[in-house]
Amino acid sequence: MNELTLGWMQAGRLVTQKIRDRPLSKYPDTVRIGRDPSRCDIIIQHPTISALHVEIFFNPKHNSFYLRNLRASNPPIINSKKLIQGEVTLSKGSSIYLGNIELKVLAVSLSFGNSSPQKSTYSLICPKCRRNLPYERLNLGCPWDGTSLAAAESVLAAKY
Amino acid sequence: MNPDSRQIQLNWVDPTTKEQQKLRLKLPIAIGRELSKMPSTIHGDRVSRLVLESTQVSRFHALILFEQGQLVVTNQSQSGTFINGISVNRGVLNHGDQLQMGNYAIAVTFVASSLETDSVISFHPDTDLPEPEVQRKTVTATSDFPPAIFQSQQISVRDLYATNLPVYQIDYVAIGAGLGSFIWVDFLRIFGVKVRQIVAIGLEKQPYARYQRLCLNSQIPLHERLRSNSDSCPDNIWGWPSYAIREAWRDFYKGKINSALQYLWQVFAEPTLAETYTPRAGNVFDSIDREAKRIGWHQIFRYGRVRAIRKTDDERYAIAYSCSSSNHRDRAIVLARYVHLATGYPAIQFLPDLQKYREKTQDFKSVVNAYEQHEHVYKHLERYGGTVLIRGRGIVASRIVQRIYEVRQRNRNIFVLHLMRSPKSQGNKFDAAQRQVENHYEFQPFNWPKACWGGELRAILENASPQQRQQFLKDWGGTTTAARSDWRRIVQEGISQGWYQITFGEVERVEREQQNTITYIKGKDLQGQIKLQADFIIDATGLEAKAKSNPLLDDLVTHYNLPLNHLGRLAVAHDFEITEMRSGKGRMYAAGAITLGGPYAAVDSFLGLQYAALRSADSLAAVRAPGMHRLNCFCSFSQWCKWITNQSPV
Questions:
Q1: Cis link prior to B146 (omega < 30° from 0)?
Q2: Which residue out of A106, A148, A149 would a mutagenesis test of the B interface target, given it has the greatest number of B Cβ atoms within 10 Å?
Q3: CB-CB contact of A43 with A35 (8 Å)
Q4: Residue B193 sits in a domain of what CATH number?
Q5: 17-36 in B: which are within 8 Å (CB) of A?
Q6: What positions does the domain FHA occupy (chain B) (predicted)?
Q7: What is the complex's ipTM, to 2 decimals?
Q8: Which residue segment(s) compose the domain that B411 sits in?
Q9: Number of folded domains in chain B?
């Protein structure tokens, strides 16, 4: 799983927020930042920040997180460079100025490269008979008692 | 230690994921990297085989046996097995020891008796007796999800953020993402809500994916007709143009004027003068695809399994869901003020004697449920012939008889035994109406009388007391099938030619003998036992929808003490709100099979889901939920124009 941690100061304390590669955000696959709660997923209330300011998304092709400007008239400053339009890659330590507020990329973890060669696979537990079932049964249900796996918990696959 | 419950508990931290693992296994136990390299039985006992996926573990690494009152570990690996750090080839294992294999360190604890264990014993649904422990594979993961704060009745939003899980905020969440969710979302969109305000969480992208699978398995191919009416259009809240008009239109353009006129005559004269019109499955799915595209469903849908829902201190709901896949874990929380539950049927109903048969014989081929994929049955019959035992007499049984009839055109050596619990000579009565019965099949065009959807029976049920409702649902419902002339002809033909036979009785048990299944039944009129021999048994008894069969609903019911109705489903108000779940301004609604037994009968039909969605959408508009505007006749008409011209509603 790919994850980016963003941090900024708000009312004198550090606020952190994690951004994942497939977020459940208001727009698919992208996390939007700004002042307006109806359009943004990360809301920062500051007069110098636009209602809808920037978005951060994961590009699986290049295996990295990107920031895109959504407000040409109030460009963010990324690592001391103005970003009028288009997108830039983010890495650990990147500094993002939205208006007068500075956000820092505290960490980026990419599953590519640092994942172990061993794939740790998960399986599902039938809610009724508690049997261990492979993920392929997800849409079909438990073959032993017909129970749906729509709310099943997952466990590390221990096969017997 | 009781010799029948020799179990030990293993605890370890997975070296790759750093997750705590807790596992209770029955002796003997084999541990290794490859399942096939470990013995499946030792001295006739079934071996619990634990697979540890690491190259540092051998294919078959160690064996744990119970010998003369002791637990003995035998090393099978070149790299060695260690007890408390000491390499052993054969060693006695004591309570509290640490077993080491490769990069795994496993703490061993003895389980005194099975009564103290938290392993799950499932109970027989009829007798309430525990089922035999047939190699029950119990895995108890130390569950760190949903997070511990979900144990309280109300969660503070600050605590949610402190869990370090990603937290998303959205106005409306539809849980299930099947047809019930789709129809509700369709109403929200038409009432003015924007795509980015709604998320639907479920397993499959297409809202009809599960429904379609159940249809295909129960022998409704795309060209066949569903048991649904012409104006029950899940893609169109106005019901016009209806499926009959659309089909007539299409056929008319193809030059098939006769069939076009026939559909129009059917909807005009049904059910008295003509057979009831029903739409083709394929046409319904295509129309849903078009509507899904129009309302932006693919942006609204997200893959996920919802595990728990709690009220929050800011009048919303916190929904813990997992979007894990087979090789990575991903969990998050979504906060929403308006939640809709349409999780559908929690299980395919397996008859208990057939479930037992599976456990005993591990035979998944000769005994099948009609809602499971069972194409192999028809392939086998076509090639080799044989006898099929059908159980249940609803619409699914009719469809299976039809399919077997089609297969029989190519192989005459096929016989059908239709096992019914009791004869049916008279149909249900209500006031002056009585259902028709023929060959023990009871007929009704749909699963409820048509007046249950929008007519006077709907009003009667809504105003009835819970006791009266129970009686009404019994009178109006029950197992019926459609009075299709082709089905009646097939049954009549089968009986007179002798290849189709109806038998009555209660099943005692099902056994496997040689190549056949043998069903033992208590005969109704005859003394003693009857044996029915068949190559295949098809269980067509239906789907299950008790709230406690769905872990998410069960958790909600126990956690918030929600009332259930006489059918064990969620009790809902007239607008389908679960009023006990109200969280200040927050509202939670339910729809579909999980609400049967309440104010509305036809909850799991297309039109019934639309009715439920309309009632809850109206009540959301009344509380001024964000984006919701009540549809007056002017905006309803303008929305209909957008539908007909295929434009986005907002």
A1: yes
A2: A148
A3: yes
A4: 3.50.50.60
A5: 17, 19, 21, 23, 35
A6: 29-88
A7: 0.77
A8: 351-425+480-540
A9: 3
